[in-house]
Amino acid sequence: MASEIKQTVLHLSDHLPILQVVVPMLIAPIIVIFNNRLIAWLLSFFGTIICLIISVALMWATADGSVLTYFLGGWVPPVGIEYRIDAANSILLFLISVISVIVMFFSSNALISEVPKEKHTLFYACFLLCLTGLLGVVATADIFNVFVFLEISSLSTYVLVAQGSYVDRRALSASFNYLIMGTIGATFFVIGIGFIYMATGSLNMMDISERALELGNNRTIQAGFAFIIVGMGLKLAMVPLHIWLPNAYSFAPTVVTCFLAATATKVALYVLIRFVFSVFNYQYGFVSEIFLFLLMPLGIIAMIVGSVIAIFKQNLKKLLAYSSLAQIGYMVLGLSLLSEKGLSASLVHMVNHGFTKAALFMALGAFIINTKNPYLSSIKGLGKAMPLTSAAFVVGGLSLIGVPGTAGFISKWLLIEAVLEAGYWVVAVAILVSSLFAVIYIWKIVEVLYFNEKPENHGELSFYLVSPIWILALFCIFLGLNTGLTVDIANMAAEILF
Question: What residues contact residue 464 under an 8 Å CB cut-off, 6+ apart?
């Protein structure tokens, strides 16, 4: 009996790569069938917990450099669709899953203030579909499958952003703009896939890599790569293709903003990383030139300009949205170095910034629930009225700046090391300047929180709203003190990709 159970567990473990994606995808229609708010939340929370358990198991299995593969329907690639899990995407699967659990816990009470109860079933179904798409993009090794999952996540995200219209009608226009830009990005991406398929006759990443090597400097492949860069640049909100992001983050429900800010742009960047190192040869002249002369300058511009604009914003959601553009600049900069250290720094910053920005947006959401106002003037004195939430916001702000002992310090330190190793000391100065700008806009918020009189009509929120904020804040501290979870895995992932 014991041996049979063991064999069943071993057999089940072989299917973990596909179960990671299938679980939320199957729960979404079940939620719609029941059409009950409580059941919808319970099933969604249960589904995200399962995804988190699977992601931890996958990260544990690939921590030694192993690669897990799953052939859909038993069809071996390049004919069939392959799911491929290694150190590079296992850590991102963990980020997406753990953020989804925390956000889902926060949503049980936070959603009531922003979305009518009769719409909660639709909200949770779309949330799980978005989760399905993001997990699928990261797990698959088939480039057309990447496009399919990108569209699943994008279409559901448009609906989620539009849910903010019950508080602010501008959410509809933000969602529409996001839809237009996302559709343009998807079109560029699928055209790029078409060029690659035309040249290689394959859709499997590993198979394309081998065939592309045989073709050498093929113009069709180069054109495909250019289209993919533009498509992913739009999805990533890379400056100057970022026009959709500030309003989408500002007018979406807080729960949606927390989830998207922590995961969506990181997944788009991961796709770019995977294409550069697993599909194309990063040593090709046209690849290295694009990254050196296009992406590196754009990353530096984003770091500086995003931070400067954030300083002058009074809408706190927009302030953090422009801050995200600056942080995306850091990640793009690390990738553009095309070095192991640069790639490792980019991967670490993806994870660290995910937890940091989720903590900040969630704490800000708690302020908005209390004040019904996203502007800076509305949080005067809340540091005294809401001490726990405010302290968590400060922890997230310190991590965003890159103060030692926080997650943000680790990734920025690694990035500066990578930049100096490449000989770009001017770029290292730009990183420090951008961090100083972050000090200004974070201090601006801290000053309003703590250096004003305590308001009479506001107090700390319930345990169910405060505890997920502090879980994220503690992640910011833990990842700053214990680097084993991120740096070691990121170093291994960079080594494998190179």
Answer: 105, 106, 108, 109
